[in-house]
Amino acid sequence: MEYLVLSVLASSLIFVIFKLYTKYRIQTLYAIIVNYFVACSVGIYFYTGSVEFSKVIEQPWFFGTILLGVLFIVVFNLMAATSQKVGVSAASVATKMSLAIPVVFGMWMYGERLGLFEILGILLALVAVYLATMRKKNVVNHRYLLLLPVAVFLGSGIIDTSIKYAQQVSVPEEEFPLFSAVVFGSAASCGILFILLKSFRDGLKINSKNIIGGICLGVPNFFSIYFLMKALDSETLNSASIFTINNVAIVMLSTLLGIFLFKERISGKNWIGIGLAIVSIVLVALGNSIQKMMFG
Question: Rounded to an integer, what distance in angstroms lies between the CA atom of residue 268 and that of residue 190?
Answer without folding.
Answer: 41
